[in-house]
Design brief:
alpha+beta, two-stranded antiparallel ribbon
């Protein structure tokens, strides 16, 4: 029994529930997690591995668009399909999928749109896509208006146009530069997986894009740009409850 009169099996079940249920608030989780902070280490390695899981603040996405640069022919039909379907206009510059050739200038030169492999790059055409990040979600966490939310059925991270103020901080926050901005509406926009039927995938003539079950790519694809935005102070204070330095 711990100092609150709760046996180990009950405490273990409470913690598992808190960790696996996205509806549990951060404060509720901290209360459950604090029930027996002194006796936590005595519960064994099984519970220790459970407790190491991050608390989910946003539910995981259920899908993801994957790219295969060895198949891409650089036709950029995916960019056109994205904006024509979502925005009613041909505007590749604001597409949610971005195509660039992986090249460098000079032996140690500046990247041409992508981080190249090798001094001169490998010449592959690279399709950059939203990673539908797990928590912490850089664009959502940085937005001062809480305008980036999840939307069923895919649980994609989407921009709520009614909340978006056009401050563009989300653009500066994304490590892969995947937030687009519509100059006509003055609103940010990003990939929402076309509610489960991505038009970029349908338009690709080379089958270089696939819509698959979600997986975490944030630790497998290196950042493309330096993050230029920071968390608002009030959000940083909330994050400190879980992410102590």
């Amino acid at each position: 029994m711990d100092h609150h009169g709760m046996d180990r099996s009950t405490l273990k079940q409470l913690l598992r529930t808190a960790l696996d249920d996205p509806s549990v608030s951060r404060r509720q989780f901290l209360w459950v997690g604090g029930i027996s902070i002194i006796g936590m280490s005595a519960l064994g390695p099984g519970l220790a591995s459970v407790a190491a899981k991050p608390v989910l603040i946003m539910e995981q996405a259920r899908g993801l668009v994957l790219s295969d640069p060895t198949k891409c022919v650089g036709c950029r039909r995916c960019e056109l399909a994205c904006t024509e379907f979502n925005d009613g206009k041909a505007a590749p510059s604001m597409a949610r999928v971005k195509i660039a050739r992986n090249l460098n200038f000079g032996p140690l030169g500046t990247g041409a749109g992508q981080l190249a492999q090798g001094n001169w790059g490998n010449g592959l055409i690279v399709q950059e896509l939203c990673k539908q990040c797990p928590h912490p979600v850089p664009c959502a966490d940085t937005c001062p208006s809480d305008a980036i939310v999840i939307r069923p059925p895919t649980n994609a991270r989407v921009v709520d146009a009614e909340r978006c103020t056009g401050c563009r901080l989300c653009q500066k926050a994304c490590p892969w530069g995947m937030i687009a901005f519509d100059g006509d509406t003055g609103k940010a926009t990003k990939c929402f997986l076309c509610d489960g039927s991505p038009k970029c995938v349908e338009a690709c003539p080379a089958a270089a894009l696939q819509y698959v079950a979600w997986r975490d790519l944030t630790d497998k694809v290196p950042p493309r740009v330096a993050r230029m935005a920071i968390l608002p102070p009030e959000k940083a204070a909330l994050c400190n409850e879980c992410h102590k330095k």
